[in-house]
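Researcher: Last one for today. Full complex below.
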Amino acid sequence: MRPRLFASLTTAGTLLAVLCLPGSTAAQAQGGTAAPPQGGTAAPPAGRGAAPAPANYPPYQRPVSTFVPPRTPDGQPDITGLYLAIPLPRSVETPLVPLPPRQNRANGEFSYSLNERPKLPEGAIVRPAGVDPADGKIPLKPEALQKRKEIIANQEKIEHLDGRVLCLAPGIPRSTIPAPVVGYQIFQKPGYVVIYYEQSHLYRTIPLDGRPPLDPNIRKAMGVSRGRWEGNVLVVEVTNFTNNFENNWVIGAVSATPGIPAESLTTGHGIPHSDKYRVTERYTPIDANTIHYEAKITDEDVFTQPWTLAWYAMARAPKDYVPVEYACFEGNAKNLMLMTNTDISPIRVDVP
Amino acid sequence: MNKPVARTLFATAVAALIAGLTMTSAQAQRGAGPGRGAAAPASGTYNGPRTPDKKPDLNGIWQALGTAHWNLEAHSAIEGVPAGFSVVEGGTIPYQPSALTKRNENFQNRLSADPLRKCYLPGVPRAMYLPFPFEITQTPKHIGMAFEFAHGTRTIFLDGTPHMEDLDFWMGDARGRWEGDTLIVDTVSLGDQTWFDQAGNFHSAALKVTERFTPMDANHINYEATIEDSTVFTRPWKISMIIYRRLEKNLELLDYECAEHVYQKLFTEKTRKP
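Model: Here's the assembly. Have a good evening.
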C-alpha cells in the first residue's frame, strides 16, 4: 500500500475510533445537566463536584421561518449546496441519573473540531436535541432499556460495538448527527432532492412525486425516503430500514463516557430499533445559510411513544469548502483489532 | 445450448429490452461486444432532453451491461463467469512484461486478492461497469454519481475547482468539463489499491483516467475511458462500452451494503465456534 494512502486512511480511521470508543478521552456531552440553558428556566447552576439537577428546558417550539428561498428551475425551494454540521449544543438526551461534572472539559463534545465549526444561529436555545417528550429522555420500553444497558455494558464486544465504528451506514436521523466528518451536499433535480453525506460516502435519493412506498421486504440501511415540500419545508417520511445488527443504533453522538450506566448517557448510544422503525424528517430553511432539522421517531416495539429530536443542523459551507472522500470501512480492520480483538481482515465475500 | 451461451443471449435480450430497441440477432451480437461495435457517435448528433443550462440531461439511473466487470479482455467462460468480448481498444491491455506477470498472479489469487471481495470501494473506472445501477444527479456546478455497490459516490466538479494534492481517494479526485455534448472527466489520485475487474487487471498510483460520456440519445451513453499509467503499461489505452438508461417505472437504487456481508459472515462464524 502506498504510504500516503495508508496514512490518510488510518489517520481517519483512528480518529473515528478515538472519538467513538468508550474509554477514549474524547469529550462526552455533560452540558445537558452541568450548564444552565440560555433562555430557559434553568436549574440553579451546580458548583464543581456537585451533582446538578437535570435542567428544565422550555417547551420546544418548531421554528417558524419567514425566509423564502429562491426557486430551482422546476419550482422547488432551492436549498442546493454544500453544508457543514452545526454542533449539537447539549448532546441528545437528558440523563435519568445526572452525571457529575468533569473538570477541564473545554468546549464540550466538539473540542476536537476538525473544521471550523459553524455556530448556532442568533437566539437559538442551547439545549439537548431531544425535545419531545419534554423531559428530554428517550421513552424506551423497559425491555428496550434492558437491551440498551446490555449493549452499553458490552462495548468491548464487536457484536455490541457502535455501528458507526464498524463503518455501517448509520441510518436516519443518525447520519445528520454531527460526526467527525460533517459535510453535506444537497442536490436538487426535477422531482428529487438528493443528499450526499461526507461521512462514509452515504447518500439518499428522495423522490418528491408521491410514489408508493417500497415492498416491506426491501430494506435499506438509510431507509427508503419519500419527500414532499410543505411550503418551504422539506418533509421526508423514511421507512423500510434494515435491522440486521444490534450495532444499528437509532442515534448516537460522539462517544459514550466509559463506565457510566446507560441511564446516565446523554449521547443517545445503544438505542436499538425494530422492523417497525420509521422517521418523519423536516428540513426548514431558516435563512439563506441555515437549515433546521427535526426528526420524529416512531417504533411501537421499542418506545412507549413517538419522540422527537430537533436542532439547527446545517450551515452553508464556506465558499472554498471541498468535500472529500471519507472511506471508513477500507481502513478499519486495524481499529477493530485494537478495540475488540477481532480480525476481520481475512474475510472475503462473494460479489456479483 | 450450453449455459454460458444462454447467459450471453439472455443478457443481450435484457439489453435489448432495456434499450427499448428491436434488434436483429446479428445487431444484438455486435451490441453485446461494445469494444467491437460501439462506434463513437459524431458530435452534435444528440437530440435528447437537455437541462436548463442546455447540457444533455443525464439525470437518472444507468447501468452498463456486459462482462467487463469480470474481465476487460476477451475471455471464454469459466465457472460462474460468462464469456465476453474485449472492451479494450485493440483487444489486449499493453502491460509492461513484469506487470503482465503480476496481472497473471492476480488472476490466480483473485478469490482472495480482489479488493472488491474485501468490500473495498471499486475505484474508477470499475465502478462504472459493475453489474449494479448507478444514479446521476446533474447540476451546473457538480455531477453526482451514486452507486448501488457499497453506496459509493463520485462528485465531479465542473466549476474549475483544482485537483487536490497529496491525498489519495478510492474513487479518485474527479474534475469535469463539457466539450460540446460530451462530458469529459479527469480522475487522478486513485491510489494503487483498486483493480479494473475480477481478472486481476491492475494499476499503480500513477493512474490517470480520462472518461468521455457522449450521449447518443436520451437513453444511451457512449462511454470511453483512457487509462494512463506509465509505471504499469507501455502506452495509454482505452476501453469503451455503452451505458444504458434503466427505464423501469419508479426504479430506485437499493442497497448492496457489502460491509454488512463481512460482519454477517464474521458473526455467523463466531456463533458456530464452540
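Residues 1-53, 103-115 of chain A have pLDDT under 50 and may be disordered. Chain A has four helices and ten strands.
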